[in-house]
Design brief:
Length: 249
Amino acid sequence: MENKLKYYLQIADNALILSHRLSEYCSRAPFLEEDLANTNVALDLIGLAESVYEEYAKIENKGNCGDDIAYRRKETEFYNVTLVEQPNHDFAHIMVRQFFTDAFHYNFFFELCKSKDHFLAALAKKSIKEVTYHLRRSSEWMIRLGKGTEEASQRTQKAIDHLWKYTPEFFIENCTDIEMNQNGMGVDLQIVQANWKQKISEIFYMSQFNIPSTDFLIKGGKEGLHSENLGYILCEMQFLPNKYPDAKW
């Protein structure tokens, strides 16, 4: 049961932290339509996270609600990958981070539809509709940036080179991933990784970007070891719940 609950948190925490990063960019996109699209993706992700936290609280049965799980945990109790907590820079940086995550989410939820866990299977079938749109949008932006101006292409390649080292963590199997996969409730991350790489290669070929050759990687988020960035996110995100713990919203 412990690994099942942690698996739930891995899924929800990725969505919650990335949605927070996207919400920080609200009103700053290049044009209004894109600003609305960015905000809608953030809302989709926080909706995904909320449904998982509510189910987590129900299974845990300790008198907590979904909001308690989201807003009353310490930094070391979050299990999101390090990529999603990386701060916003320019638009190219944000879209590269989004594209890497969207490609993972699409292939992850596609496999999770086969889960023997009824909640996870239902979550995946619902989420696949949303992440299909997310991936199409970010893929189109990668191609647009790659075939746009020289500055757009250079900034995007720079973002790729910077963020690439965070992507292997998506596919590093910890004890939770292994047990859930063996029980038929999780996914085989090797399959997800192979399909992820295929999508990345396809879009990079179309947009004329280069895949970095470095073997250097940053990991630890799935085990509760994070960059300093998550601490700043939680200070902001959890301020009101901690300041007014008895408030009813």
